[in-house]
Design brief:
Elements: H1 6-19, E1 27-30, H2 36-54, E2 64-69, H3 78-82, E3 87-91, H4 92-100, H5 118-134, E4 138-141, H6 151-156, E5 161-162, H7 169-177, H8 181-192, H9 197-203
Parallel strand pairs: 1-2, 2-3, 3-4, 4-5
Helix pairs in contact: 1-2
Length: 204
């Protein structure tokens, strides 16, 4: 929508750039990116707006650009994205939905929405690996991020940031503290070896 309506997109980007004049930690995350082409178009709009705002106040280049990884199409291109993005955030709710072709809001098929499907877990691992190879931050948001069954999995595949509602912070912190990095890595490896949903469930 924003790429089809640059007048709206540019207004939003310029507002963020102006508001970030005295801040060094502003990040802009583009959602629903499905190709390098879309990423570059969005980044080009940002650069265009940054040039405009820089004429007013020198703050445009403090902003870091990243993407919300939600579409399976990104997985095979993850190294290409990691070479150009400042960070990733994995949106697990949509990533699961689109990986499995399941509308999680439709009660007739919601039972097929399975966060621990082997394809989902292996896809998450590939995304984290791509980020870690390039040394860029990768965070996780969505329901999986606060589920105690998956927290050690995320730690084990190299995720170091979990984005959760504040109500979940105490339980997430407790769960993270229960494992060493090595234990989490072994746990993640045991899940990733399984080719079936049942096999993963036995180890969760």
């Amino acid at each position: 929508f924003t790429l089809r309506h640059p007048e709206i997109f540019d207004r939003q980007l310029r507002a963020i750039l102006r508001a970030s004049a005295d801040c060094d930690a502003v990040r802009i995350m583009f959602p629903m990116i499905g190709s390098i082409d879309e990423w570059r178009l969005a980044r080009a709009r940002f650069n265009h707006c940054a040039t405009q705002v820089m004429a007013e106040q020198a703050n445009g280049h403090r902003v870091r650009l990243g993407l919300m990884v939600e579409l399976p199409a990104v997985v095979d291109l993850i190294d290409d994205f990691a070479a150009d993005a400042a960070f990733f955030s994995i949106g697990t709710n949509d990533f699961i939905q689109y990986t499995l072709g399941v509308d999680r809001t439709n009660e007739k098929v919601a039972g097929y929405y399975c966060p621990h499907h082997p394809a989902v877990l292996r896809g998450l691992k590939r995304i984290a690996d791509g980020a870690n190879r390039r040394g860029i931050p990768v965070s996780v948001c969505g329901e999986m991020a606060h589920d105690p069954r998956y927290i050690p999995f995320f730690v084990g595949i190299g995720v170091r940031e979990l984005s959760v509602d504040p109500v979940y912070l105490p339980s997430v912190q407790r769960e993270v503290g229960r494992y060493t990095i090595t234990e989490a890595q072994h746990y993640a490896h045991s899940l990733l070896l399984q080719p079936t949903i049942a096999g993963v469930e036995e180890r969760l």
